[in-house]
Design goal:
The complex is a heterodimer of chains A (449) and B (112). Chain A is an all-alpha fold and 449 residues long. Chain A has a single domain, classed as Ammonium transporter AmtB like domains (Ammonium transporter fold). Helix content of chain A is 65%, strand content 1%. In chain A, strands 1-2 form a two-stranded antiparallel ribbon. The longest helix of chain A has 33 residues. Chain B has 112 residues and is of the alpha+beta class. Chain B has one domain: Alpha-Beta Plaits (2-Layer Sandwich). Chain B is built from two helices and six strands. The longest helix of chain B is centred in the last third of the chain and has 12 residues. Classes of the chains: A mainly alpha (449), B alpha+beta (112).
Chain lengths: 449, 112
């Protein structure tokens, strides 16, 4: 539950609490009426801090090298460096922008606009000091943990427009997208915004990260257009070994993502870790068997893709469901994302090169909706979100989160890309695309053998 | 003199090389090539996208021989490269006008 309260050790106002989980509600609710206990809650916990330092490093490891390798292996050899470069540059740029204003927009009180977006009072990390705390961990750790989420979300989009986008436009797009899409949506769910008030369960970012990036990817893929020659020309992956290594690193790093989202080293974090492993395994098998049945052979790219689909789907659910819920969510996402990446994409004909929509948006939607089902205590879950009395109410709240993210991210991404297309152009020219982005944009080759 | 060009399956190289050595053949040239014949290619499938790979990897061996060695060399190569399955490759034999050893300037059969 990432929307924890932010307080300074030297400045202890009345608690503002965004926790929506029954157990937490009880605790935090009690503190609100018992200031002396609230002071105890503000103490730094070294166990929690140690785990969150580790989790933060794990989440960064997901983007570089995990996601970068996962994507780099799937493109053609002439574009392998361009994808690695995009992931690396996004990591650097988002870190700076998060420092400058992203963190403040996502997690500060936005005053009158708080339902929609946070404020600017922590721009340039004003007030984030050695002593300031966020719950039981240093605010510096909380801020950096969240920074790694702000890094991976834009980086996920790279897969949708791989092999054809201008690097310069890509950088500008990502900078604007972080500011006007990621930071507000993050605020809606975790920073005290309007989706939190619906009691939405999004433990580690099914909506904020995966649906958000997935739909932005779909819009970008459609607006940039298909790669030259798609789908008639063969565009086989240049090195699936990279892709499998990348997927494996994502799997490992995701323990930081999901179990870290508890922001503490406790039982919820432990169960988040367990269900992450279980759902991922179920999804990898789900995709593998789907492919085996429909095409006759199980593939390495398939099982790795299935694992990522499962990681995506368990993300919103990881603090709310039990082991059997995780099996169901994982299996559903493995089969569902296989169908999305193979059949739906072909049917509609868009060139979402590396299946950002098919895996992250579709997996995110499956996970978000099923979180509303398997959070039920009767199904081994931890219970519904604050204010939701029934499974129906919770599923509706989840649906509101899904639809609002799809609509907002879709429209905002469209507008940003439309403007950038007019101002600087989205796509490399045809000769550059034929030559490959490695040489055309970076004067380098990935393989000199 | 004759120039023998053999297209063979890559994993048969060692067998062919050994068979030729036993005949006293002192040199050959090897090239990695791709092509197709009656074996055709194969299909690859990546997330539902199916590609037909027409050109399969083969090895091309070029051997220059004296006329009296030709039959035994042809027999040795066909014997060593054969698996009996489709895709074993081809042998092409052509006339060789001249051969010169660069280091000494020797010509003809002496250069082989």
């Amino acid at each position: 539950m990432q929307g924890t309260q932010l307080e300074s050790a030297t400045d202890k106002p009345a608690s503002r609490v965004f926790a929506r989980w029954p157990v937490h509600l009880l605790w935090f609710g009690g503190f609100a009426f018992a200031p002396s206990l609230a002071l105890a809650q503000d103490a730094l916990d070294s166990g929690d801090t140690a785990w969150m330092l580790t989790a933060t490093a794990l989440v960064l490891f997901m983007t570089i090298p995990g996601l970068a390798l996962f994507y780099a292996g799937m493109v053609r050899s002439k574009n392998v460096l361009s994808v690695l470069m995009q992931c690396f540059a996004i990591t650097a740029l988002m870190s700076i922008l998060w420092t400058f204003w992203g963190y403040s927009l996502a997690f500060e009180d936005g005053g009158g606009a708080n339902a929609f977006v946070g404020g600017l009072s922590k721009m340039f990390l004003a007030g984030v000091t050695v002593d300031s705390l966020s719950g039981t961990i240093p605010e510096s750790v909380f801020m950096t943990f969240q920074m790694t989420f702000a890094v991976i979300t834009p980086a996920l989009i790279v897969g949708a427009f791989a092999e054809r986008m201008k690097f310069s436009t890509m950088l500008v797009f990502m900078g604007i997208w972080l500011t006007v899409v990621y930071a507000p949506v993050c605020h809606w769910v975790w920073g005290g915004g309007w989706l939190g008030d619906w009691g939405i369960l999004d433990f580690a970012g099914g909506t904020v990260v995966h649906i958000n990036a997935g739909v932005a990817g779909l819009v970008a893929a459609i607006m940039l257009g298909k790669r030259k020659g798609y789908p008639t020309t063969a565009m086989p992956p240049n090195n699936l070994g990279y892709t499998v290594m990348g997927a494996s690193m994502l799997w490992v790093g995701w323990f930081g993502f999901n179990a870290g989202s508890e922001l503490a080293a406790d039982g919820v974090a432990g169960m988040a870790m367990a269900v992450t492993q279980i759902a991922t395994a179920a999804a990898a098998l789900g995709w593998m068997f789907s492919e085996w049945l429909s095409h006759g052979k199980p593939s390495v790219l398939g099982i790795a893709s299935g694992a990522v689909a499962g990681l995506v789907a368990i993300t919103p659910a990881s603090g709310a469901v039990g082991p059997m819920g995780a099996v169901a969510i994982g299996a559903a996402s493995g089969v569902g994302c296989f169908f999305a990446a193979t059949t739906i994409k072909r049917a509609f004909g868009y060139d979402d090169s590396l299946d950002v929509f098919g895996i992250h948006a579709v997996g995110g939607i499956i996970g978000a909706l099923l979180t509303g089902v398997f959070a039920a205590t009767a199904l081994g879950g931890a219970g519904f979100g604050d204010g939701n009395e029934s499974m129906a109410a919770q599923v509706i709240a989840q649906g509101v989160g899904v639809v609002s993210t799809l609509v907002y991210s879709g429209i905002a991404s469209f507008i940003i890309l439309k403007i950038l297309d007019a101002v600087m152009g989205l796509r490399v020219d045809e000769d550059q695309e034929t030559e490959g982005l490695d040489i055309a944009l970076h004067d380098e080759r990935g393989y000199i053998l | 003199m004759k120039l023998l060009t053999a297209i063979i399956k890559p994993f048969k190289l060692d067998d062919v090389r050994n068979a030729l050595s036993e005949l006293g053949i002192q040199g050959m040239t090897l090239t990695e090539v791709k092509g197709f014949g009656r074996q055709k290619g194969h299909t690859e499938l990546y997330r539902g996208a199916e590609y037909v790979v027409d050109f399969l990897p083969k090895l091309k061996i070029e051997i220059a021989v004296n006329d009296d060695q030709l039959t035994s060399v042809v027999d040795a190569v066909t014997e060593a490269a054969r698996t009996g399955k489709i895709g074993d490759g081809k042998l092409f034999i052509s006339e060789l006008g001249e051969a010169i050893r660069i280091r000494t300037g020797e010509c003809g059969g002496d250069a082989l």
